[in-house]
């Protein structure tokens, strides 16, 4: 869990992903299209990827990826992020975290 917290706090937006996951790809594209450059942690390419995946599952991520952190706080997985995007809350969170200026 400490590894996830440390990685999540290193950037305004951090996405834990798997390189082969289509939902991870869709969430990354969403952030790129918003003008945000998130830090991406591809857990299937990390030496401690299984430990990270286990920690994300303990946080309540089901499935464990994509898991999105904004301002060091867990925002949710794909469904939660898409809901925030559709209701306009995601932009506000991104501005508050300093990931988006306009």
TrEMBL record:
Cellular component GO terms, alphabetical: cytoplasm
NCBIfam families assigned to the protein according to its UniProt record, in alphabetical order: GlrX-like_plant
Protein name: Glutaredoxin domain-containing protein
Subcellular location: Cytoplasm
Keyword Nucleotidyltransferase: no
Keywords: Cytoplasm, Redox-active center
Glutaredoxin domain boundaries: 13-75
Keyword set includes ATP-binding: no
UniProt xrefs under Pfam families: Glutaredoxin (PF00462)
Main location: cytoplasm
Similarity-based family: Belongs to the glutaredoxin family. CC-type subfamily.
Organism: Brassica carinata (Ethiopian mustard)
